[in-house]
Amino acid sequence: MGKLIDVMKREFLGWKKWQVIWIIFANVIILGVSLYLGDTIIGILASLAGVTCVILWGWAGYRITFSEPSIFCGENAKKERDFCCM
Predict the structure, then answer these.
(1) Alpha helix (H) ranges present in the chain?
(2) What pLDDT digit, counting tens, does each position of 1-44 carry?
(3) CA-to-CA distance for 36 and 13, rounded, in angstroms?
(4) CB 3.0-4.6 Å disulfide test: which of 22, 52, 77, 82 passes with 69?
(5) Residue 30 · residue 47 · CB < 8 Å
C-alpha cells in the first residue's frame, strides 16, 4: 500500500487543487452513471480506466509542451538539448 501511495504522490506532483478535484469528480460521475445504468464490473472498470487515462495523458502532454524541459529530461536538458526536449 505504501508503494501505491508513493506512486500517486509522484503522479500528482505539481498538480493544482482544481486538477485533482477534476479527476476525482470525473471518475465519480462515470461511476455514478455506470451504476445507474446497471453496467457490469468490467464495464465500470473500463470506463474509469479510460477517463483516467485520457485526463492523465492530456495533462502529461500539456506539461511536456508548456513546462520547463528540465522537469522531464534531467538537470542538463537546457545545456545539452536532449532529444526528448526538442
Answers:
(1) 2-11, 17-36, 41-66, 70-73, 77-80
(2) 788 888 777 777 777 888 889 889 999 999 999 999 999 999 99
(3) 33
(4) 77
(5) yes
